[in-house]
Write a structure and sequence with these properties.
The structure holds two protein chains of two kinds. Chain A is α/β, with parallel strands linked by helices. Chain A contains ten helices and eleven strands. Chain A has a single domain, classed as 3-Layer(aba) Sandwich (Rossmann fold). Chain A has a six-stranded mixed β-sheet with strand order 7-8-9-4-10-11, with helices on both faces. In chain A, strands 1, 2, 3, 5 and 6 form a five-stranded antiparallel β-sheet that branches. Chain B has two domains: 203 residues, no CATH class; 221 residues, no CATH class. Chain B is 75% helix and 0% strand. Chain B contains 21 helices and no strands. In chain B, helix 3 packs across helix 8 and helix 15 packs antiparallel against helix 17. The two termini of chain B are 38 Å apart. Classes of the chains: A alpha/beta, B mainly alpha. At the A-B interface, helix 2, helix 3 and helix 4 of A face helix 13, helix 16 and helix 21 of B. The complex binds adenosine-5'-triphosphate (ATP) and magnesium ion (MG). Adenosine-5'-triphosphate binds next to strand 2 and helix 1 of chain A.
Chain lengths: 250, 526
């Protein structure tokens, strides 16, 4: 469903993503982890056609992204790292705009949207988006993406800013969509989310994929520790002793 | 005081960083002081002829007295301009201070979180507003200088004269701030922002009107009755501008009034500043409806255009950009200072410039919602074309409207209508140019629909609109108007050939940038 070959992205001198080879299969939830500035958002931006890669190839749903860009964009759903929408539209106007643009099945999508609104407590659709709090906007963003039930979903830190209940609901919804055949690619800093939800996990550091596999595979392939947190820290080169010492000295 | 200096320093640094970044991108790094010198030379160059002209006017008016008044006309004129400075500053600064100083925005939130005294933050913001409105004040310098020259002011009086001017401006600032702080209690920040634009517009129209009306009537001899009203207004003893007039002539009463109230208003400001807080709340109760029906509207325009239209008209201020191309040429036609040719040209130029600007502003919406537009299954090219279509459709209608009204007033020159199709195409091209140049450097171009474009890019855009206006409209005007005695061969060159050529060349220049790869790069460039 998602496949990349030797993907590279440079910003001037800086190499943000280096030689990335990914493969995510149908119905899979793939967790993409890494420290700040590792290149997660950059990768998602390339996979969703926001950024052109410097070199390398991307296939989504079996199609070359470069050649079938619009077709692919119609099929996928993206929740960017920041929920930015048109400030001077009201929530409901934005929703109808999205429905019109994607030319979706109206009845079904509307029904699904209303259900999601119930679940997320979205009751502010008649207000301007510019007045939303971060979490409110994030929920609307998630709802407008999920209502289309896309075949492939990209989510960049989707639970940031969501309240406890909404975050739980989102996780359950993602699981359900995956079970029904959607492919999900998400980044997160909350390892518990990754541990519980993801079928496979990729860890990126300084632009390079340093480990990949299910939790068990990660444990055996050199990451020290029982929990994902310990594995993650040892893989990304953080040392527990050193950190403790630094904190002591503060 | 130290804190205030730090804040101001940091603001200046941000401004200079902005300009430095701009010059770096182009590969040439002109030092700031050279730029300053160029600007100064440009200003002096622009002001010198006006000042010379004004010196003549003042000298001529010096010996004239309107019957029943004891002020010579030259002083009446100065008083009138003092009055105008006053009106403009008050009109502009009160809403501007409310919006920038008293209402909450990103910067005030940051500043309030810092360990700085409230009064310092207040004065800092006031400083910012004042430096933002310095331009209109600059505009009046020729009058002030011309007056000083015409009365052959002694050199030792010049510093006092300057002090008088400074006192007047300070006093007005003080009054504006006090009013603003007071009015802010009843006004939401959105209203203030809107009012800001309205006032700006009114003062510009006011200026244009005065500049076209006054010199025309003043020089046509006999003192008309309406002038008496102006004189009594310009010399009303309750107005600060009159105090200024008196202070210039060393009348002790007015000197005390001017400096006394100036000090008083500064003290008032100080008192206000220590109790400064942002206490504007968003008005309007929020009612929450559980279910809102979502209506899809698959109308003729398509979702993108209807969304953009909705956003555009919610921008409020944009209305004035629609009105300018209609109002200004017509004012000039009415006041008789311009002919139909001038009005057509001016309307055409404004349409070209604003067309590009509105198109840029439409792209600003996509920037706000980035990366929304890139994720949608719509190609970049289509987005750009739809935006260009919206803005060129609006300005094409406005242009035709302006021309038709002008033609009905002048009752001649109907041949000019032949040039309209060419203008349509040119307007469309200008809009595309506007979108592209906005996307290429979103920060340098003012997209808030408040004022003309900023910086070098804005200048460049103005230059291009001038060229296109000259190529498409100016040439047609000469080619089509029969009152110009030109051989037929040149007429043909001027009318169908020159506009066509302009359009084709412009298109050729734009075409390069309209490939997918380049456009993608633009949308990527955040
Ligand atoms: N537009 C850009 N121009 C220049 N450098 C960029 C740009 N976008 C990202 N980078 C750089 O690329 C690197 C990767 O950034 P990216 O946003 O992908 O990190 P991330 O893994 O998403 O981090 P976070 O966990 O903080 O979200 C960073 O070093 C960043 O500085
Ligand atoms: Mg990120």
């Amino acid at each position: 469903m998602i496949r990349t070959k030797a993907l590279v992205k440079c910003f001037g001198e800086k190499i943000a993503v280096n030689n990335l080879n990914l493969q995510v299969n149908k119905g899979e939830i793939y967790g993409f982890l890494g420290p700040n500035g590792a290149g997660k958002t950059t990768t998602i931006k390339m996979l969703t056609g926001i950024l052109y890669p410097t070199s390398g190839e991307i296939w989504i749903l079996g199609k070359d992204l470069r050649r079938h860009e619009l077709e692919i964009k119609r099929e996928i759903g993206v929740v960017p790292d920041e929920p930015r929408m048109y400030k001077n539209l009201k929530g409901m106007e934005f929703v109808s705009f999205i429905m019109d643009i994607y030319d979706v099945n109206e009845e079904e999508t509307r029904r699904r949207f209303e259900e999601i609104c119930d679940v997320f407590n979205i009751d502010y659709l008649d207000e301007f988006i510019g007045e939303y709090s971060h979490g409110m906007a994030q929920k609307l963003m998630v709802a407008t993406v999920m209502m289309r039930k896309p075949k492939v979903l990209f989510l960049d830190e989707p639970t940031v800013g969501l309240d406890v209940k909404s975050a739980r609901m989102l996780k359950m919804l993602l699981k359900k969509y995956a079970d029904e055949g959607s492919t999900i690619f998400m980044t997160t800093h909350i390892l518990e989310v990754a541990e519980k939800m993801c079928d496979r996990i990729g860890i990126i550091n300084e632009g390079e994929l340093i480990a990949e596999g299910s939790l068990d595979e990660l444990r055996t392939s050199g990451g020290k520790g029982e929990h994902l947190e310990d594995i993650f820290l040892s893989l990304t080169g953080a040392n527990d002793e050193e950190m403790r010492e630094l904190v002591e000295n503060l | 005081m130290r804190e205030l200096m730090i804040l101001i320093e940091y603001k200046l640094k941000m401004w200079s960083h902005k300009s430095r970044r701009r010059s770096k991108k182009k590969g040439t790094s002109i030092p700031t002081w050279i730029l300053l010198v160029i600007v100064a030379v440009g200003l002096v160059g622009a002001f010198t002829p006006i000042t010379m002209l004004l010196v003549k006017t003042f000298t001529a008016l010096k010996s004239m007295h309107l019957p029943g008044t004891h002020y010579p006309m030259s002083e009446v004129l100065l008083g009138m301009f003092g009055f105008m400075i006053m009106v403009m500053l008050l009109l502009n600064d009160v809403p501007s201070i409310i919006y920038n100083v008293v209402s909450e925005n990103e910067e005030t939130s940051l500043l309030f979180s810092l360990p700085i005294k409230r009064s310092v933050v207040f004065f800092f913001k006031i400083f910012e507003v004042i430096s933002g409105t310095a331009l209109p004040i600059l505009f009046f310098f020729p009058f002030l200088i011309a007056y000083a020259i015409s009365v052959k002011m002694a050199w030792y009086l010049v510093p006092i004269y300057i002090l008088d001017i400074a006192a007047l401006i300070l006093l007005l600032m003080g009054i504006a701030s006090v009013i603003a702080a007071f009015v802010a209690r009843f006004m939401s920040s959105t209203t203030a922002k809107r009012l800001n634009i309205i006032m700006y517009t009114i003062s510009i129209i006011f200026l244009v009107f005065i500049f076209n009306l006054l010199p025309g009537r003043m020089t046509t001899g006999n003192p008309l009755p309406w002038m008496k009203r102006y004189v009594s207004l310009a010399t009303d003893p309750f107005l600060p501008s009159t105090w200024f007039l008196g202070a210039v002539k060393f009348k002790s009463l007015y000197l005390t009034l001017l400096y006394g109230t100036c000090v008083l208003s500064m003290l008032g400001l100080w008192a206000l500043s220590s109790r400064y807080s942002i206490d504007i709340t968003k008005v309007g109760e929020k009612r929450r409806e559980k279910r809102v029906s979502i209506t899809t509207n698959r109308n003729v325009f398509g979702p993108f255009v209807s969304k953009d239209l909705k956003l555009l008209f919610r921008e409020g201020n944009v209305l004035f950009l629609f009105l300018y191309p209609l109002i200004f040429p017509l004012i000039m036609l009415f006041t008789g200072s311009w002919s139909i040719v001038g009005a057509t040209l001016f309307a055409g130029f404004l349409c070209m410039d604003y067309c590009a600007m509105i198109a840029g502003g439409l792209s600003h919406f996509e920037n706000q919602a980035y990366p929304m537009s890139v994720l949608l299954p719509v190609s970049e090219k289509r987005i750009i074309f739809e935006k260009a279509l919206i803005s060129s459709a609006i300005y094409s209608s406005l242009y035709v409207l302006a021309i038709l009204i002008a033609l009905f007033i002048a009752k001649k020159g109907w041949m000019l209508l032949l040039n309209v199709p060419f203008t349509f195409v040119a307007l469309f091209e200008m809009s595309i140019y506007g979108v592209i140049s906005y996307l290429a450097s979103p920060r340098e171009i003012s997209a808030d629909f408040q004022s003309a474009m900023k910086g070098m890019k804005g200048l460049k855009m103005m230059l291009i609109s001038t060229c296109i206006t000259a190529g498409v409209i100016l040439s047609s005007v000469f080619g089509l108007d029969n009152s110009f005695k030109i051989p037929v061969f040149f007429k043909v060159l001027l009318f169908p050939v020159a506009p066509s050529l302009t359009i084709i060349v412009f298109w050729y220049l734009l075409k390069d940038r309209l490939n997918e790869r380049y456009l993608k790069g633009l949308f990527e460039n955040r």
